[in-house]
Design a protein that fits this description.
Number of helices: 7
Number of domains: 2
Largest sheet: 6 strands, antiparallel
Helix content: 25-40%
Structural class: alpha+beta
Length: 282
């Protein structure tokens, strides 16, 4: 009797205090994996979040996904793209913000839709009046099938890139671009007023973007004075000299850079300075 009373007392205490027996948490992989990609674009970034279904032996386009129907473009929620600055997409200027992406696959043409409503599960609640804009692209036939639905960035340049959509034997792509030159040039001008002047990155930007080469050389010379033993500074100066037509000066600078790189066991800049020498000797 005492034993039963003791047990009842413990149970009563458990109930009173709200204790619950521990239960194992169920952990299962999602049917479609998710991926988030952050891609730099000029001095801004693009963030893409989407879900990735697999083919699993199914016929995709013209089968699982009928042609000429609005498609969520993947699985689960529609892909979400966030731009932290204004961007041009397939020739259309778009303000910074977050947008949803849907598509209408076709045999000879796809329609790409950017929606102001980024919070959509599937295309069930899609409304055309929520479109930001839409455009058409030609699909590309792939020789090798893509098992897992894939979106990625390619051809990434200082202020542009391509966004690719690929699944099964089909791929479509479109261009993203930013026009930040005015903003970048203004930031360089402002930084040059400061005590610590960014000679090296400013010279690089001028050289790589076809700006005033004389000014770029002036700045790279200042960078060289500040870092006379830096093989990477020699490499960039040699490139600028070569572009300015000073082959003799480019060879001399690149030879210095290669020697400094050897002393530092820096094989990368041994090779890069050597490439400038080879180019100048042609």
């Amino acid at each position: 009797m005492k034993k039963r009373l003791f047990t009842s007392t413990i149970i009563a205490a458990v109930v009173t205090l709200g204790w619950q027996p521990t239960q194992a948490q169920l952990k299962l992989p999602p049917a479609s994996s998710s991926q988030t990609i952050t891609q730099s674009l000029g001095i801004s970034t693009v963030t893409l979040a989407y879900s990735r279904p697999n083919m699993n032996g199914r016929k995709i386009f013209g089968g699982l996904e009928p042609y000429d129907n609005v498609w969520r473009t993947g699985a689960n929620n529609i892909p979400i793209l966030t731009f932290d600055s204004d961007v041009t997409i397939a020739g259309t200027k778009v303000e910074a913000g977050t947008y949803g992406l849907l598509t209408i696959p076709g045999t000879n043409e796809w329609t790409v839709i950017f929606s102001k409503n980024s919070k959509q599960w599937g295309a069930y609640s899609y409304k055309q009046d929520e479109d930001l804009f839409r455009f058409t692209v030609k699909p590309e036939r792939l020789a090798k099938p893509v098992e897992t639905f894939t979106m990625d960035f390619s051809d990434v340049k200082p202020q542009s890139a391509k966004l690719n959509i690929a699944w099964e034997n089909t791929k479509v792509s479109f261009d993203l671009a930013v026009d930040q030159d005015t903003e970048i040039m203004a930031s360089i001008d402002e930084a040059m007023k400061g005590e610590k002047k960014p000679y090296f990155p400013a010279a690089q930007y001028y050289f790589k973007n076809g700006k005033d080469l004389t000014k770029a050389l002036e700045w790279i010379n200042e960078a060289e004075k500040a870092s006379p033993q830096a093989p990477h500074v020699k490499y960039w100066k040699a490139q600028m000299q070569l572009k300015a037509g000073d082959k003799k000066g480019a060879i001399a600078t690149a030879q210095q850079g290669a020697e400094l790189a050897k002393q530092a066991n820096n094989e990368e800049y041994v090779k890069l300075n050597g490439q400038v020498i080879a180019e100048a000797q042609k």
